[in-house]
Structures are given as C-alpha cells and as structure tokens.
Design a protein that fits this description.
227 residues; mainly beta; 7-stranded mixed beta sheet; 3-stranded antiparallel beta sheet; 2 helices; 12 strands; 11% helix; disordered N terminus
Length: 227
C-alpha cells in the first residue's frame, strides 16, 4: 500500500499540514484497521498469519517535533541555595589541633517557570570542595557535620583540618549540584552539573603554649609561671 490519498476514504487524507506525530497516529490507526480486516477475511490460521500491511511514505522528509533537551544552563533562574561554610569552634582554631568545617547545603526543590511551562526543580549537592585557606584543599561527597557536644570538640572529623602555623586565613567552599526537573509527568535528570561558591569565612589560628605553674594563676596571678 502506498501512503497517499488514493485509499477508498479510509486512508488518511489531506495530510500535507499534519505534524509528524499527528501523521503517525493517523497511519497507525489506519494500518491497525487494515490488518484486522485482513485477519477477519482469512480462511485459515495459516492465511491469517500471512496478513501484513505496509505503508510507504512518498512525501519526503517529515517535519520534526523534536525539542532540544533542557540543559543545566537553562536553569540559571533556579540558582540553588548553597548555604554556608561553618567553622568550629566559632571561626577559630589552634595550631596542631583539628578545626572542624562543615557545609549546610542540602537537597531542596524550587518552583518556577521554564521555557513557558511551570516546573519544579530539585537540586542535589554531589561534591563539596573545601579550601582551608593555607594551601590545603579537600573534595568530599559528604558535607561534614558539627561536633556533637563538648566531648567531641577538638576531635578529628572527615572534613576537619589542623593548621601548622599561627595565621589569619580565609576558608572557602564550593558545592557542586546536579538537577532534576518535573513538569508534571515525573522527574527527569538534567545533563551537567553546577558549581556554586558559598560565602568565604575568616579563620583565626592561634598558637597555644603549655607552661608549668606553681598553682592556680587565676587565684595567684603573680605565682611562678603565671603572668
């Protein structure tokens, strides 16, 4: 069979202005009907097994309904919330002792308009690049965590850092996010990733010396070793 207007009123007619998707739907329905008619007219199961309907399109190239996929650059208006870099204890550290760092960025969603459609974007942090400000860096898949109570203070964590000298440094953090989009039909992954810098944090590094005293310096500030 030839896909044109020559069929007896059953084949798709006036197809010149149809999109590729509309044309395919109409031809699928037509061919299904022709196949069913063939099987109904068959005199035996063997004959029914030989029914085959073929359509040949002689119109040339069909119009394309394809749409360019969404990229990470299309989500510029949905900039993820990067949170902050936290330094324990309270933005300072001691030479040779772990100073704890952790990020507050976490998975979150945003609603808005994308290419004329209402969508929900879900951002997920995948890596955390810590720069401790003294030339030392570390990239992790985890955000780190706060010390749990006074018993954990000054203990090493997966994202802590021990400075080797007294200094005033600036620590920074870059979080890399991936994105998923839901336009009402379910989530799909957006190709690529987006690195976002958190606000830098000043860190004051002190050096502590241990000395022997003759007693409690608070009670006797002039005692040997005090002052």
């Amino acid at each position: 069979m030839i896909a044109n207007d020559a069929f007896d009123g059953a084949a798709p007619a006036n197809v010149s202005n149809l999109s590729a998707a509309e044309l395919k739907a109409r031809w699928d329905a037509f061919l299904d009907a022709r196949f069913a008619a063939c099987e109904a007219d068959a005199v035996s199961e063997i004959a029914a097994g030989r029914c085959q309907v073929t359509a040949i399109d002689n119109r040339g190239s069909l119009p394309s309904d394809s749409v360019d996929p969404i990229t990470i650059e299309d989500l510029a208006a949905f900039r993820p919330i990067v949170g902050e870099l936290v330094v324990e204890p309270d933005g300072w550290g001691v030479v040779g002792t772990p100073t704890n760092f952790y990020a507050t960025a976490e998975s979150h969603t945003m609603q808005g308009d994308l290419l004329g459609s209402a969508v929900t974007v879900r951002w997920t942090p995948t890596t955390y690049a810590f720069d401790y400000g003294d030339g030392t860096t570390q990239t992790t898949e985890g955000s780190g965590a706060a010390w749990s109570g006074t018993g954990e203070q000054w203990t090493e964590t997966s994202t802590s850092h021990a400075y080797s000298s007294r200094d005033d440094v600036t620590a920074s953090l870059t979080v890399t996010f991936t994105a998923e989009v839901d336009a009402g039909g379910g989530w799909f992954q957006v190709p690529g990733s987006l690195p976002v810098e958190a606000p830098a944090v000043p860190v004051k590094v002190f050096e502590v010396d241990t000395v022997l005293t003759a007693g409690d310096c608070a009670a006797a500030p002039t005692a040997p070793g005090c002052g």
